[in-house]
């Protein structure tokens, strides 16, 4: 017989307030703490009788458990590393304090095998985010170390059955249908468009089906967890309008007039749909032959109706362009590109070093984490960064700890003026972004094509 005391009751209701949805592993001893363990597990990626692969996952799943927290409330994660290698977790897109950013070698030491690390933070912005390994990410993310992080609006705008996460990943499978680990780290991928897979999964499954209520407004949260693939999705094909980019709600739903939409690695797009018909809806990826990655089965639920939901916008500091400091980031290198001198670890690389170090891309002539930051500014400084891509590839540039506005693309003012944490810049293109550097600490600025990041496209800046 277990006696429930008032003490227990308070503790568990506090936990419930932090953790509104199922899918959490909450330690009974420490209310409010979520336990998350990285470990190896076996799973057949195509499912059925196909050979299992040994993957790495949070809580032995792919994707890891979906974490949910209410905007402004504290998420407390007790992370344990049961992998054979060190690792760390980055909370992508969350404007959190620097010490919790999870960048091994910059904001923390990697967590050794058998080690633990406590991550606690209060996400200031509602929306769709994700978490992933940030230690040798090119390998660890490809092995499966990622999951969804949802920061809920104070008043939920969608019922749970009308709120669907679609986390996409492309795996490179061998002929037996197993994850091809022998090609991890291949120079060909690092110097070209990154590691591209040949098998697409959604929430870890091939071509899943989801039931959604007929006649109800539905939120689909698309997340690109691919190492390097730019997904092509046309929301108009399935009657969807965009309601958020990279977690940040737009003022109103937008019907795209250019399609397909390019969803770069790490980017998210939330879309709004409503189907009055019971016909199944196929969601397709269009970068090659159109491929149905998921199907929505529209079912009668006796619910539905209701007005069009409105997502409240997060409050972000508007950059003051008049008083901004401007910096230029020149992206060079890679296959079919030009590269002058490339400095790595403080010295000019020779042809020989090239192959040994696998550094083939540079930011302002430096590969991978110069000793000095790209820029250092006082807290609250308005910053404009002009990114000039002199390579033959498109890149997905990500800034840690901040969201920014895109001012111009290729010299033309950007019409959307949406907040983002990751942007695509095309070959020989330019993009000008602006933000208020209001979050103190050392922050990464890198290409989220994880092979590019590892092969040189990583720098950092400092907010003092
Ligand atoms: Cu999604 Cu540097 O990270
Ligand atoms: Cu890149």
Description:
- Helix content is 8%, strand content 40%.
- Strands 20, 23, 26, 28, 29, 30 and 32 form a 7-stranded mixed beta sheet that branches. It has a 6-stranded mixed beta sheet with strand order 10-9-12-17-14-15, with no helix packed on it. Strands 25-34-33-27-31 form a 5-stranded mixed beta sheet.
- The protein is mainly beta and 464 residues long.
- The protein has helices at residues 6-18, 137-140, 187-191, 351-358, 450-454, and strands at 33-43, 53-58, 67-70, 75-81, 89-92, 116-121, 127-133, 146-152, 163-171, 199-202, 209-213, 218-224, 231-233, 241-245, 248-254, 261-263, 268-273, 281-285, 291-299, 324-333, 343-344, 347-348, 361-363, 366-367, 376-377, 381-389, 395-399, 404-409, 412-413, 419-420, 422-425, 430-437, 441-447, 458-463.
- Strand 28 and strand 29 (412-413) form a beta hairpin.
- The protein contains 5 helices and 34 strands.
- Copper (II) ion (CU) binds next to loops.
**CATH class identity of the largest domain:** Mainly Beta
Q: Can you identify the CATH superfamily of the largest domain?
A: Cupredoxins -  blue copper proteins
The CATH topology of the largest domain is: Immunoglobulin-like
Which compounds are bound in this model?
A: CU-O-CU linkage, copper (II) ion
Helical stretch tally: 5
Radius of gyration: 22 Å
Low-confidence stretches: 1-29
Distance between the termini: 56 Å
* Biggest sheet character: 7 strands, mixed
Kindly give the count of domains: 2
Q: Helix proportion of residues, in percent?
A: under 10%
How many DSSP-defined strands?
A: 34
Strand percentage, roughly?
A: 35-45%
What is the level-2 CATH architecture name of the largest domain? Sandwich
- The secondary-structure class comes to mainly beta
Average pLDDT over all residues? 91
Question: What is the molecular shape?
Answer: globular
């Amino acid at each position: 017989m277990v006696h429930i005391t008032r003490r227990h009751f308070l503790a568990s209701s506090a936990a419930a307030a932090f953790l509104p949805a199922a899918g959490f592993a909450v330690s009974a001893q420490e209310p409010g703490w979520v336990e998350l363990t990285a470990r190896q597990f076996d799973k057949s990626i195509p499912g059925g009788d196909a050979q299992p692969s040994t993957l790495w996952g949070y809580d032995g799943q792919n994707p890891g458990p979906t974490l949910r927290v209410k905007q402004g409330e504290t998420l407390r994660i007790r992370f344990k590393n049961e992998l054979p290698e060190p690792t760390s977790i980055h909370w992508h897109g969350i404007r959190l304090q620097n010490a919790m950013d999870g960048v091994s070698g910059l904001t923390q030491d990697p967590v050794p095998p058998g080690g633990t690390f406590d991550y606690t933070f209060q996400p200031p912005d509602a929306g769709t985010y994700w978490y992933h390994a940030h230690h040798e990410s090119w390998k660890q993310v490809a092995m499966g170390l990622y999951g969804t992080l949802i920061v809920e609006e104070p008043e939920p705008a969608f019922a749970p059955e009308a709120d669907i996460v679609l986390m996409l990943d492309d795996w490179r499978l061998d002929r037996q249908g197993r994850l091809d680990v022998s090609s991890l780290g291949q120079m060909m991928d690092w110097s070209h468009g990154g590691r591209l897979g040949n098998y697409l999964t959604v929430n870890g499954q091939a071509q899943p089906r989801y039931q959604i209520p007929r006649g109800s407004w539905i939120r689909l949260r698309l997340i690109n967890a691919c190492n390097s693939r730019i997904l092509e999705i046309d929301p108009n094909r399935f009657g969807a309008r965009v309601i958020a980019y990279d977690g940040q709600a737009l003022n109103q739903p937008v019907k795209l007039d250019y399609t397909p939409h390019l969803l770069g690695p790490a980017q998210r797009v939330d879309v709004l749909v409503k189907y009055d018909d019971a016909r199944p809806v196929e969601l397709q990826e269009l970068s090659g032959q159109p491929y149905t990655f998921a199907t929505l089965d529209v079912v009668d639920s006796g619910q539905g109706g209701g007005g069009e939901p409105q997502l409240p916008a997060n409050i972000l500091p508007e950059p003051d362009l008049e008083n901004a400091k401007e910096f230029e980031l020149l992206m060079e290198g890679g296959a079919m590109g030009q590269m002058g001198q490339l400095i790595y670890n403080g010295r000019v690389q020779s042809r020989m070093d090239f192959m040994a170090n696998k550094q083939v891309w540079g930011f302002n002539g430096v590969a991978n984490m110069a000793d000095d930051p790209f820029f250092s500014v006082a807290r609250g400084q308005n910053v404009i960064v002009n990114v000039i891509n002199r390579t033959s590839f498109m890149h997905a540039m990500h800034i840690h700890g901040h969201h920014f506005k895109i001012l111009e693309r290729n010299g033309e003012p950007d019409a959307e003026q949406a907040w983002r944490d990751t942007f695509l810049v095309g070959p020989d293109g330019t993009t000008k972004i602006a933000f208020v550097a209001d979050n103190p600490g050392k922050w990464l600025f890198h290409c989220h094509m994880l092979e590019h990041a590892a092969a040189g496209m990583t720098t950092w800046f400092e907010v003092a």
